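User: I need a structural model of Antirestriction protein ArdA from Dorea longicatena for a docking pre-check later this week. Nothing fancy, just the predicted structure tokens so I can convert them on my end. Input:
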Amino acid sequence: PLWEINANCRMVLELEGTPVGNEMKAIQQKWFSSFDEFIDHKDEIRYYDVGDGAALAEYLICEENVFGEIPHELQKHIDYHSYGNELEMDDRYLFTTSGVFRYQ
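Assistant: Understood. Predicted structure tokens for Antirestriction protein ArdA:
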């Protein structure tokens, strides 16, 4: 029906210019079987403005405390590249030229 097409167009316009909107095709291909499913779950997609796995690892460990509070003097000994490589292989993450996306 026409109202569904109009609603989908409004959603696309709403996402236009955002990181999720810029990578809509890649995100949909990675996690969703249809555009409607993508739209239904778009708010569950997290965006990280980082360039690679090591940067994501450092952000998650230092800023989001995924392993709990780690003293600053120990943070310099963490192998962010190794953990970043693991994140890059994790299906919950999508690495793009726009940044990294996570869908839970």
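Before docking, keep this in mind: The longest strand covers residues 99-103.
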